[in-house]
Amino acid sequence: MLDTFRNAWKIPDLRRRIVFTLFMLIVFRFGAHLPVPYLSADAMKAFLGDSGGGMDLFNLFDTFTGGAFQNATVLAMGVSPYINASIIIQLLTVAIPSLERLAKEGLEGRKKLNKITRYLGIALAFIQGAGLYVTLYNMGSAITNPNVLTFFVIVLTFTAGTAFIVWIGEQITEKGLGNGVSMIIFAGIVSRIPSAAKAVYNTYVTGTSYSPIGIIKALLILAVAIAAITLVVFFTNAERRIPVQYAKRVVGRKMYGGQSTNIPIKVAAGGVMPIIFASSIMAFPSTIVRLLNGGNVPQTGVGGTILNCLSSTGPVWTTVVYGILYFLLIIFFTYFYSSIQFNPIEMSNNIKKSGGYIPGIRPGRPTSDYLMKIISRLVLIGALMISAVALFPIVYSLICKMAIPANPDAAANSIAAQGGMTISLGGTSLIILVGVALETVRQLESQMMMKHYKGFLD
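and the corresponding C-alpha cells:
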C-alpha cells in the first residue's frame, strides 16, 4: 500500500488528486470544530453520555463525524442523512418502476438519481435537526434563549452543515480520490483512533489498572485489533470466480468468441450495509424514546427492559439478548441486500444472450439455479464473517461485565468504561476503514495503470 502511494505521488495528475483530497478532508475537520450558535457543547456531551456509550443514531452521527456531534458543531449531523436518503432511494429503485428505469439509463440516469438523493438527504437533515432541537429543548439548559429564531438558526445550521459536507464529498469524488462520502466517513473515524488509543494506554499502562496483567491486556487488545483487520482484509478481497465459456461463432469472414472468462462474486458483497441496516433498526426505538423524553431513556419497568434488550449497555442477560437479535438482523439484511444486488435470472439471461455458458451447466433455468445456490452459500459465509466482526466488541463488553463485581470500585468502573466504549460501532467502523482503504488503493492502481499504458498507437 505504501509503495502504491509512493508511486502515485510521482505522477503529477495523481499528486494533484491526492493533495485536493487531503485539502478537502482538512476543511471537513476544520468545520467539525465550528460551534453552533445558541447550543451548549456540554449539553450535547451529556446527551450522548445518557446512553452510557451505547448505540443509537446519535452515537452513529458522532462516530461518522469524528466527534463533531458531541462538540455541537456545524457538521454535527454529518453525512448520515445523506446515507439514509441513499438507502431509501436504493430500496425504492426496486419497488418503483420509474426509478428503476433511471437506474438503467446509464450516466444520465445516475445523475438524476443522485440529484433526488441529494434533495432527500437535505430534507432528512432538516427533519432530524428539528427533532434534535426539540429533544435538547426538553433538556432545559442545552439551548440559550430558546425561541422561534433560535430554532431556525440551529436547525438550518445543522442542515447547511449536511449540505456542505455532501458538496465536499461530491468534489472529492469528481476531482479527488475514491468515493467522497466514504472518504469523509473514513476521516471522521480515523480522527477518533488517537483518543481511543490514548484511553486504552491511560487505563492499562499508566492508570489505576497499571500492572503486568494490565499491560498484557493492552497488548492483547492490540493483537486482537490486528487480527480483526487481517480477517476483514481477507474477506473483503475474497471472491468466488464462476467460469464462463463463450462459443465460437462466424460473422461474415471473421470468427468471434471461443474465449473463457469468469464472473467474480465477492464473499462480502454487502460490505458494511447489513450492519448499518441492523444498527439502525436496533437503535430506532431508543432514539425515538430519547427524542420524546428529553434525552432520557427509562431503565426500569417493561419499557426499560425492552430498551435494554435493544442496547449493549444493560445487564448481562439483556446484552446477550441484544447480541442474538443483532446477529439475526445482520444475517437477514445480508441476504436482503444481496437479493437487491444480484439477480441470478438476469445474470443467466445475459450469459445466454452473449452466447456463453457455464461448463457443465445447461443455459437457462439450470444456470440461474446454479448461480442462486452459489450466491446463497457465499452470502452465508459473508454474513457470518461480518457478524463475527460486529459482535466481537459486544462479547468483550459482556466478558467485562461478568468479570466485574456487583459493586465495583472506581478502577473497575474505568475498565468497564473501556470495555463498553463504542461497543456497537467498533465492527462497523473497522469494516468501513478497511473497505475505503482497499478501494482507494485499487483506484490508485487503476489510475497508474492507465497513465503507464502507452496503447497500440505508440
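(Above: one complete record from the training split.) The chain has a mean pLDDT of 77.
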